[in-house]
Known about the structure:
This protein is α+β, with helices and mostly antiparallel strands. 41% of the residues lie in helices and 14% in strands. It has nine helices and eight strands. The strands form four sheets. The chain has a two-stranded antiparallel ribbon. Strands 3-4 form a two-stranded antiparallel ribbon. Helix 4 crosses helix 5 and helix 8 packs across helix 9 (200-206). The longest helix is centred in the N-terminal third of the chain and has 18 residues, at 43-60.
Amino acid sequence: MTHARATSVRPAAPTALTTGQRITRALVTARAARRLVTVGPIAPAVGRLVTAAVAIAALALPGVAQAQDAIRPVMYRVKQGDTLELIAAEFYGDRGKALFIAAENKLTRPRPLRPGERLRIPVSREVTTSPGDTFESLAMTYLGSARRGGFLAEWSGIPQEESLPAGTSITIPFTITYTAQTPETLAEVARSYLGDARQGDLLRRYNQLEKATLDRGEAVIVPAFQ
């Protein structure tokens, strides 16, 4: 079976919503919230207040939907003859990254894939900065912690203290959560997932850990790029 290279399937950056789309989405959200307030004599008045409040809040956060789109994995439907290694070669250009797909889909034991089965494929994304964006705000939105802004700056080759002009293209890594099945070191996790045991210290700092080992059942987030 012939598979395309990862560059041919890389998702495009999310498109900004127009004002009209934002208003429509805000009103739909607000009406859904208003339906929750249906009991008591003051329900109509409270419902109107809920509608207005939720609509205003939704308009004030136009980037939330885009952020969710940016970190959402790609859904892939398994074809006859597919293996995790072949799918990894298609999306990442590296059969060895099949373990990322296994981790994302909680496939803890090797098994044949079923045609028609749907898999979540974690992929890195390109985002375009808006006025006022910083590495810290981007890290909070896409990586779950403003403290990871330094990693985004390092990976982008831009000093963290520099301002980010609007329109700057930033690559957001995909992440998977790895749970240790036995006691092991972060260096071992880094060797398996990042191909370099020396990246164990990166995993320690990225997860804000004080130790370099994992006990059974402990989890760490592993960031990676295609």
